[in-house]
Design brief:
The structure holds 2 protein chains of 2 kinds.
Chain A lengths: L16 E4 L5 H7 L6 E4 L7 H11 L4 E4 L13 H14 L3 E5 L2 E4 L2 E7 L5 H18 L4 E3 L5 E3 L6 H12 L2 E5 H11 L3 H7 L5 E6 L3 E2 L4 E2 L8 H14 L4 E3 L8 H22 L1
Parallel strand pairs in A: 1-2, 1-13, 2-3, 3-4, 4-7, 7-9, 9-10, 10-13
Antiparallel strand pairs in A: 5-6, 11-12
Helix pairs in contact in A: 1-2, 4-5, 5-7, 7-8, 8-9
Chain B lengths: L3 H13 L10 E3 L5 H23 L1 H7 L1 H14 L14 H6 L10 H16 L22 E5 L4 E5 L3 H7 L17 E8 L2 E6 L2 H11 L4 H11 L5 H10 L3 E6 L1
Antiparallel strand pairs in B: 2-6, 3-4, 4-5
Helix pairs in contact in B: 2-4, 3-4, 3-6, 6-7, 8-9
Classes of the chains: A alpha/beta, B alpha+beta.
Chain lengths: 284, 258
């Protein structure tokens, strides 16, 4: 157990393992303050007040925090929702997160949200569009955001740019950082039959500021990114390879369905921490 | 090649309705799968996402009608009810109205009102916090101007009426309650104040006059007008005690004098 600091914890995320903060673990985390590097939350779950925000603020006094959005729908052609943006900005001012991230995906059409992380066609048109939206968001928030690569079960036949080049170009054009989801790369590589190492090699290493790890399920004919299991062995292996190229980065264990006991999450985080330290020692 | 907007619109139609296959011509499935099966993976995850949001918001309805029937009603609701927020926690408004005309639910006459109550509770948990007002400032208001004050209510406040005993139904169907004693549907209707206080949401039965006064304040009526409607409901209503109590328990959020 770590000792309680007197003031709010540092803002910058350390290059250590962190875990996703989920409601079933609020009380236990605050009571035990386990030795983990940082916490990440889904931004939308803290747009209101009451119990969730109270726990987040209490925990923020002990851990750096990252805000991870799932509802901005950056790749959609509808208007960015000003209310959603304002709520995110208010939360940023209140929590002082180390990082703010969103997904490289779309999830809304005229008249309705779809509340999912859907794959963009990797075309020049989509690239220009999503870059302008990312810049609008960064301007509004007054800070850089990170963009996360998604997993997918379909691709568009008119894709003209490999996904990894698309991701790298988004970072280059907008100045945003990248949130590298190693599990998503693995899932999509298996589903679409590309080489995950080529994906890693194409990304600008200095832009990658955070890494996500999670578990997937095997569906009929494809891998499904459920965030409901331990990280799979080939994903740990790919993570090691990513670290060789990237140096240590804040690394998150994400778990969103069938949420296990806190001890299981901490166990996964300890595994990530161990790999971070090994790779760091090798690099030193 | 479809434009980005056209491609996404076609994807959305196929996602929500399996019989709309136009988008499949533009999609390639994962290795070992056709595009149709890939789209079905997204369709499952979309419906299960919304079903999860409805289960979270409407646990009492789920307990009243059973899981299987609830899921069927939820899927039909999802087909007809677009999500209007990027935050899925806000999906599910209007499920009560939907149930009012849903086959098989129509006989459970109280169901729509129980759903409306659950939605109010669900939103109350998520509303923003507000700082307690500085009531000491009231001392500066000249007595002759008091009637012109306008109070706002805590952001989580919702007022509901029902001809059914929805509070008793709600309480009898909480997870901690395994007392399955039947609620007497003839025991009369409820006027309810729903409000978050601290981390908990309170459900309070209020009198006709109290309800009228709170509803007036919620509609930005002046104190004088709220007093008048409360006295129409009950000439003996103690308006001073009402104000003091709701100031003390956080129902009154702030006030302005125009």
């Amino acid at each position: 157990m770590r000792t309680r600091p007197d003031s709010v914890s540092a803002t910058i995320l350390p290059a250590r393992a962190g875990i996703g903060l989920r409601a079933p673990h609020y009380r236990e985390l605050l009571d035990t303050l386990p030795d983990i590097g940082w916490l990440e939350v889904h931004s939308e779950n803290y747009f209101g007040g009451g119990r969730p925000l109270w726990f987040l603020e209490q925990l923020r006094a002990h851990y750096p925090v990252s805000l991870h959005g799932v509802g901005m729908s950056l790749g959609a052609t509808t208007h960015l929702d000003p209310d959603h943006l304002s709520r995110l900005k208010a939360l940023i001012e209140r929590i002082e997160p180390g990082l703010v991230s969103e997904h490289l995906s779309w999830g809304a059409v005229e008249g309705r949200h779809l509340n999912d992380l859907l794959p963009l066609p990797y075309t020049e048109e989509a690239l220009a569009h999503v870059c302008s939206r990312i810049m609008q968001v960064q301007d509004f928030l007054g800070r850089r955001i990170l963009i996360e690569n998604i997993s997918s079960y379909l691709r568009w036949k008119h894709d003209a740019i490999p996904e990894w080049e698309f991701v790298a170009e988004v970072a280059r054009r907008t100045g945003c950082g990248l949130l590298l989801d190693v599990n998503n790369i693995y899932v999509s590589a298996v589903n679409h039959g590309f080489d995950p190492r080529a994906y890693l090699a194409a990304l600008p290493a200095h832009r990658v500021e955070e890494i996500h790890l999670a578990g997937f399920d095997e569906g009929a004919g494809c891998l499904i990114d459920t965030h409901g299991k331990r990280v799979a062995d080939p994903v740990w292996q790919l993570y090691r390879e990513a670290l060789v190229r990237l140096d240590p980065r804040p690394t998150l264990i994400e778990w969103d369905t069938d949420i296990p006991a806190l001890s299981v999450l901490l166990d996964e985080a300890a595994m990530a921490q161990c790999i971070l330290e090994e790779e760091h020692a090798l690099a030193a | 090649m479809p434009s980005l907007r056209e491609a996404q619109a076609a994807f959305a139609r196929g996602l929500l309705d399996a019989s709309d296959t136009a988008v499949l011509a533009h999609l390639a499935g994962a290795h070992g799968m056709d595009a149709d099966a890939g789209l079905a993976v997204y369709r499952n995850s979309t419906f299960s996402n919304y079903r999860g949001a409805l289960r979270e918001a409407y646990p009492v309805i789920q307990r009243l009608v059973g899981e299987e029937y609830f899921d069927q009603a939820a899927d039909d609701f999802i087909r007809f009810t677009p999500s209007t927020f990027g935050d899925v926690n806000l999906y599910g408004a209007g499920f009560g109205d939907f149930l009012a005309s849903y086959p098989g639910a129509r006989e459970l006459v109280y169901l729509p009102d129980v759903a409306r109550l659950e939605w109010a509770v669900h939103l109350a948990f998520q509303d923003i916090d507000c700082e307690p007002p500085d009531f000491a400032r009231l001392a500066d208001v000249p007595p002759e101007r008091l009637a012109a004050l306008r109070f706002s209510l805590h952001p989580s406040v919702r007022l509901l009426t029902s001809p059914w005993p929805v509070l008793a139904i709600w309480r009898a169907n909480q997870p901690a309650c395994d007392d399955n004693e039947a609620v007497d549907l003839g025991s009369g209707g409820n006027r309810l104040l729903v409000i978050r206080r601290g981390h908990d949401v309170d459900l309070e039965l209020v009198s006709a006059a109290e309800f009228a006064a709170l509803a007036a304040l919620a509609n930005k009526a002046s104190l004088g007008d709220a007093l008048e409607v409360a006295h129409m409901a009950d000439p003996d209503f103690d308006f001073g005690a009402f104000l003091q109590r709701h100031a003390a328990v956080g129902t009154l959020a702030d006030f302005t004098l125009e």
